[in-house]
Design goal:
Elements (H helix, E strand, L loop, with lengths): L2 H8 L1 H9 L3 E8 L2 E8 L2 H14 L6 E7 L4 H5 L4 H13 L6 H10 L3 H15 L1 H7 L3 H7 L7 H4 L4 H14 L3 H9 L3 H4 L4 H14 L1
Parallel strand pairs: 2-3
Antiparallel strand pairs: 1-2
Helix pairs in contact: 2-3, 5-12, 5-14, 6-11, 7-11, 7-12, 8-9
């Protein structure tokens, strides 16, 4: 049994008890070889009751970091401190879902909120996956000029010239050429969780929901 499952098994009754107390658990993961739990309690009484259950299992709880906050969780709370793998899985699920905007639309939204370095990183990831010759022929504007100029890499300065609308078209071509681009892009943006909040409420809720299911 791996360390995460071992610790989840140890504290399973406490985690189940939190649910019965009306406490929302938004993260359960391994951090620094300890079980990390982020949860939101409706009252101080519920929080104290949860701690009583934890201490009844292990009075030292030296292998547990449990952050129980009072109030309702936000999607930003769920992203805070989440592992890149968990965020990437959630992003990929949202990108592929028929309940969210199209992949290209969401990606252009992320792109518009990114800085020059992040924009360049995204463009280079897409071009690497889909092939610059195909995309250069298919897309007009600054990006096509960059590719025709023989540049193998888009710089941050060049990336700032590219509009979100072009990125939306680029994403459509890239997805057709190489569907795994969704996983690659998800991995890229999982390293920048603060930008994931730019997806919009519906898509962000799906990211977080998928993360919770995988916990």
């Amino acid at each position: 049994m791996d360390r995460l499952n071992e610790l989840k098994g140890k504290y399973q009754s406490a985690l189940q008890g939190m649910s019965q107390l009306g406490i929302q658990v938004t993260q359960v993961r391994l951090q620094d070889d300890k079980l990390y739990v982020l949860a939101f309690a409706p009252t101080d009484q519920a929080k104290n009751a949860a701690w009583d259950q934890i201490k009844s299992i292990d009075s030292t709880y030296s292998d547990l970091t449990c952050d129980i906050r009072i109030g309702e969780p936000t999607e930003a709370d769920a992203l805070q401190g989440a592992s890149p793998t968990s965020i990437a899985d959630g992003l990929a699920a949202a990108f592929r879902s028929d309940q969210t905007p199209a992949f290209g639309n969401m990606l252009s939204n992320l792109f518009s909120n990114s800085d020059g370095q992040q924009r360049a990183g995204l463009l280079n990831q897409i071009l690497s996956a889909a092939g610059p010759s195909l995309l250069g022929a298919a897309l007009p504007g600054p990006l096509a000029n960059i590719l025709k100029g023989g540049s193998a890499t888009v710089t941050p300065e060049q990336a700032q010239q590219i509009s979100p609308e072009v990125v939306e078209d680029l994403a459509k071509h890239a997805e057709k050429a190489n569907p795994s681009i969704i996983d690659q892009v998800s991995g890229f943006y999982s390293q920048h969780p603060q930008l994931v909040q730019a997806l919009g409420a519906g898509a962000l809720a799906m990211v977080v929901s998928h993360m919770n299911k995988k916990s």
